[in-house]
Amino acid sequence: MSFLFPALVDGPGGKAALRFGARSLTYGQLAAAAGALAGRVGDTERVAVWATPELETAVAVVGTLLAGRAAVPLNPRSGEKELAHILSDSAPAAVLAAPGAELPPALGELPRIDVDAAAVGPVPEDRTDESDPALVVYTSGTTGPPKGAVIPRRALAATLDALADAWQWTGEDVLVHGLPLFHVHGLVLGILGPLRRGGSVRHLGRFGTDGVARELNDGATMFFGVPTMYHRIAEALPADPGLAKALGRARLLVSGSAALPVHDHERIAAATGRRVVERYGMTETLMNTSVRVDGEARAGTVGLPLPGVELRLVEEDGTAIAAYDGETVGEIQVRGPNLFTEYLNRPDATAAAFTADGWFRTGDMAVREPDGYVRIVGRKATDLIKSGGYKIGAGEIENALLEHPGVREAAVTGEPDADLGERIVAWIVPAEPQSPPSAEELADHVAGRLAPHKRPRVVHYLDALPRNDMGKIMKRALGV
C-alpha cells in the first residue's frame, strides 16, 4: 500500500505542515518528531492519544500511524465512567499526551509518553497492509456504552483521496478549522487530510469568527466547520463586513457532522457570494457523499456518492428503493473501501451492522433526487416520524421552522398519538423569548411550506437546545 503521507518523505521539508496558534511545524520537522515518536511507540498494538487541540495531538497520531500501530483518540471532556470503559475495551499500551497536560485519574495506571514536538528521529519504513487498523474511534453510545469502530488504513486513504477528487483538494490548499481532534471530522479530515495532500493546516485552538477571518485573509483557502459554527458566522455577518469579505476569499467552505439549516446556507451565500458545501459521513464509514466543488451546491443536500462508494436507500423490510423521486424516504446503506472493519470486541454488533451481502446499515434516513443528489431527513431512531400513514423526516420540518423569523433554533421529534400513531412535536428557541410565535402560527407556517400532514401538533419553548461537543442536538435529552 502506498504511504499515507508521501509529503513526509518526498515533499519539500521546509514547507509549513501544521500551525496551532503561534506554534508550527514544517514537513521536515513533523517527519522528525513523528519519526522519533514512532520509535518510542514500538510494536504495541494500540496507544491512546489524549486529544487536546494542540500540536502534540497531531504529532501523536501521525507518529502512531508511522509506527504501523492504531491510535485511540480520547475526548478530554469525557467523564470518568466513559473513559474507564474505553480504556478497558481498547486496552492501549500507553497514553500519548502533550507535556504538562493534566490527565484524569482513569488514566493513572496507564504508562504515559510525553510527545516532544521538537524531537528528531527517522521515518520508519512502511511495512503496513491496507487492512491494518489505523484508528479506533469510539462512537457516542445512545443505548449503551460507546463502541470502538476499527478504521483501517485503507479507509483513511480511500476517503481522503475521494474528497480530493470531489473538492479538487491539492497541496496548494491551506485549511483552517477549530474542530476537536478526537473524531473523524476534526482529526481525519482536518489534520490527516491536508497532510496526505501535502498541504497545510492552521488550527484555531478554539473557534471564533475573528480567527476564521484572520486566517482566510492571511492565505487560507478552505474552512471546515459544523453547523453551530456556520450559524454563528451567519449571525455575525450583518454587523461584520470584514468577515463577509474574508469568507468570500475562501476557495471552499465545508460543513459537516450534522445538517446545515437551509436558512443559514442562504444567509451566508447572500452575504459572501460563497455556497457552503455539505458532505455526509459517520465514524464507521468516514465519508460517503459530498457536493462536488465543480457541481451544484444545492442547499439541504449532501451531494452525490464519492468515488468508490456504493449507496442505496432501502425500505423497512430491506428492499432497495428502485426509483428515486425526491420524496420516498429510505434508510441509507453503503458499501466501499471507506468502511470500518469491526466494532472492537463486539462481533455481535458488527454482524448486526451489516447485511448478508456487505452493505452497512447507517441508520440514517434520506430521500434521493432523480439526478442522484442525497438529502438526509434524520436518524431512523429519533428523526423518522410515522404520522397518519406518512413517513416524515424531522430535518425538513426543522428547516421550515428555522425560516420563520420568530425562531432562533428548532428541533423536531415524534411522540405517541392514539389517532395518528405519532404526532409531530416542535422544540423551539424563540428569537424573542418575551413574544414567541404561537403554536398555531408555527403549524400554519410549516403547512404552507411543506404539507399539512407535516405541521407540528405540539410546540415546546426552550431557552436553549441540548447539544453535544460537535453541536449536534441531543434529541434523547428532549425526552425522545
From TrEMBL:
<feature type="domain" description="AMP-dependent synthetase/ligase">
    <location>
        <begin position="12"/>
        <end position="344"/>
    </location>
</feature>
<dbReference type="InterPro" id="IPR000873">
    <property type="entry name" value="AMP-dep_synth/lig_dom"/>
</dbReference>
<feature type="domain" description="AMP-binding enzyme C-terminal">
    <location>
        <begin position="396"/>
        <end position="472"/>
    </location>
</feature>
<comment type="similarity">
    <text>Belongs to the ATP-dependent AMP-binding enzyme family.</text>
</comment>
<dbReference type="Pfam" id="PF13193">
    <property type="entry name" value="AMP-binding_C"/>
</dbReference>
<dbReference type="InterPro" id="IPR025110">
    <property type="entry name" value="AMP-bd_C"/>
</dbReference>
<dbReference type="InterPro" id="IPR020845">
    <property type="entry name" value="AMP-binding_CS"/>
</dbReference>
<dbReference type="InterPro" id="IPR045851">
    <property type="entry name" value="AMP-bd_C_sf"/>
</dbReference>
<dbReference type="Pfam" id="PF00501">
    <property type="entry name" value="AMP-binding"/>
</dbReference>
<dbReference type="InterPro" id="IPR042099">
    <property type="entry name" value="ANL_N_sf"/>
</dbReference>
<protein>
    <submittedName>
        <fullName>Acyl-CoA synthetase</fullName>
    </submittedName>
</protein>
